[in-house]
Amino acid sequence: MAINKELLKGSTVIMILTMLSEQEMYGYEIIKEMERKSNGVFIFKEGTLYPILHGLETEDWVTSYWQTHDSRKRKYYRITKSGQALLQEKVKEWNLFRNAVDGVLGEGHA
């Protein structure tokens, strides 16, 4: 089943920041890891991911640097302190939202 893009739109930032809080990654690595961790549900295209990363960088929530690995130059992203603070805020917001939706749907109740 495909996920509605509108549902995905509101959760991409928290997922990307969470992954970057675990380790620094380059763009394609983020795409593949997102796909792996979601069991193939979330498949980002480069044209979707990079504008989000650039926006996060503009807001100083992530920073980037270039590194050469196996003769390939890659742009790595890392979360900043302000990005960590935003992530904590987004996790609280997500938990509130998820619990409210579960309550309306009758999920999580015996």
From TrEMBL:
What Gene3D superfamilies does the entry give?
Winged helix-like DNA-binding domain superfamily/Winged helix DNA-binding domain (1.10.10.10)
Question: Which InterPro entries does the entry mention?
Answer: Metal_resp_DNA-bind_regulator (IPR052509), Tscrpt_reg_PadR_N (IPR005149), WH-like_DNA-bd_sf (IPR036388), WH_DNA-bd_sf (IPR036390)
**Transcription regulator PadR N-terminal domain segment(s):** 16-89
Q: Which domain of life is it from?
A: Bacteria
Write the protein's name.
PadR family transcriptional regulator
Q: Which organism is it from?
A: Cohnella yongneupensis
